């Protein structure tokens, strides 16, 4: 039986691009988190979510998520956002159009982050995100997060490293709110300190990179 690790305060979470609820299932195992709303456009995934989590509302389209739409489904407070944003714009198996791909939802993610003003966010995607558009796309993600006042950590973790039988490497971005004076700071100050996005990760699960005020 899995022993739950529960923080002092339960965190209310908005689950974006939820698929069939893997993040929220993890919350049930770990404890300490409560998913207050899903966002998932696929009808089959919606059926699975409704079956597994009938008490959690679903907003189908990420473009429709606002503080007003969340209030309409009873969500008044959000501590954190988790997002498994679409991978095809960045996958090595595709055309890697990144910012030019209509499936790229990072713009919507940042819009929502600004609107709900969560204290933290976690984003999961394919490792190709790091090198898309010559790494400039990933740099822009880090810069936008830091300019919003977040400290950011990122790294590549494989499913095999946590007990799965397949490799399935994914890049994880963890942003935690900071009240530092970093807002408005030039990106060049960060590129001098372990922020070469083209070489980040390298498959070492313990080598998470970090951007923070120093």
TrEMBL record:
GO MF, any single term: DNA (cytosine-5-)-methyltransferase activity
Pfam families, A to Z: DNA_methylase (PF00145)
Reaction(s) the record says it catalyses: a 2'-deoxycytidine in DNA + S-adenosyl-L-methionine = a 5-methyl-2'-deoxycytidine in DNA + S-adenosyl-L-homocysteine + H(+)
Keyword line: Methyltransferase, Restriction system, S-adenosyl-L-methionine, Transferase
BP terms from Gene Ontology: methylation
PROSITE patterns on file: C5_MTASE_1 (PS00094), SAM_MT_C5 (PS51679)
EC number(s) stated in the UniProt entry for this protein: 2.1.1.37
InterPro entries: C5-MTase (IPR050750), C5_DNA_meth_AS (IPR018117), C5_MeTfrase (IPR001525), SAM-dependent_MTases_sf (IPR029063)
Active site: 87
Enzyme class, first EC level, given as a word: transferase
Family according to the record: Belongs to the class I-like SAM-binding methyltransferase superfamily. C5-methyltransferase family.
UniProt protein name: Cytosine-specific methyltransferase
Organism: Nostoc favosum CHAB5714
């Amino acid at each position: 039986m899995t022993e739950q690790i529960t923080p002092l305060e339960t965190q209310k979470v908005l689950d974006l691009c939820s698929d069939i609820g893997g993040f929220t299932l993890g919350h049930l195992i770990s404890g300490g988190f409560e998913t207050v709303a899903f966002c998932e456009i696929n009808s089959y995934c919606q059926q699975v979510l409704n079956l597994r989590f009938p008490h959690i509302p679903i907003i189908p389209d990420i473009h429709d998520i606002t503080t007003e739409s969340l209030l309409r489904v009873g969500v008044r407070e959000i501590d954190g956002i988790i997002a498994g944003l679409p991978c095809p714009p960045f996958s090595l198996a595709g055309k890697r159009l990144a910012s030019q791909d209509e499936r790229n939802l990072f713009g919507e993610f940042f819009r929502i982050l600004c609107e709900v003003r969560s204290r933290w966010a976690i984003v999961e995607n394919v490792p190709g995100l790091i090198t898309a558009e010559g790494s400039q796309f990933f740099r822009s993600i880090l810069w936008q997060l830091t300019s919003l006042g977040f400290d950011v950590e990122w790294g590549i973790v494989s499913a095999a490293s946590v007990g799965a039988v397949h490799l399935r490497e994914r890049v994880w971005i963890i942003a935690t709110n900071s009240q530092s004076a970093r807002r408005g700071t030039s990106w060049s100050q960060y590129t001098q300190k372990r922020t070469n996005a083209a070489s980040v990760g390298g498959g070492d699960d313990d080598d998470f990179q970090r951007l923070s005020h120093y």
